[in-house]
Specification:
9 helices, six-stranded parallel β-sheet, 239 residues, alpha/beta, globular, four-stranded mixed β-sheet
Amino acid sequence: MTQPIKLGIIGAGLAVKKLHWPALERLTEQYQIVAVADVDGGSATSIAALTGAPHTFTDYRELLALDVIEAVLISLPIHLTAPVSLAAARAGKHLLIEKPVGSNLEQARLLRDELARLPVIALVAENFRYRSDLRTARRLIREGAIGEIVLIRLHSLAKIRGVDPEDFSSTPWRQDPQYRGGALLDGGVHHAAALRDIGGDVEWLHAFVKHGDSVMNGPTTISMNLRFRSGALGSWLYS
């Protein structure tokens, strides 16, 4: 690669500011941020000033219309991720997508099927796949260092502050989500990915969920038992 990838950012919220930009800032030889789009013009301008992007838009379709942009980072509320990702892929842009890829199974399957036939590369930004402890666990299992896996148990407890503007739980779309999964789909998806990374595909499960928080609407606690295709059993508690 001789020239940095020309990157556009769609969505200018906390995830870009606190997670994506600190990484991209160290990769300036690989990426040049060309434009930022957000329905809140002030947020777009703020991220553009931070990243040095020369263009800002309040309509993401204007960003996608720029021929110079080769790839887009999509960092939007969950219910917007799939339709905007689909529009970007159809515009010929490569994709870095936040998790989960859809607000329901129908959205996710549609996006998966469309991406399979379009000439673009798409990557889901699931950071747990790159954690050193989980990578070590996968290697030890793959090498047979700990023998046959019988049981995988994962307990995940998170504190919701909801009043700190720099805390993800303070964003209005998370407190009143436009999707069924609530905090489980937004935060719990990381831990579900970790379980699958370690245990492989799941063939059977049952779970109970509970709505138990005064800040976040939707389910906030899940207790799940599962069986992996390998025959190993699993237990997951997230709250």
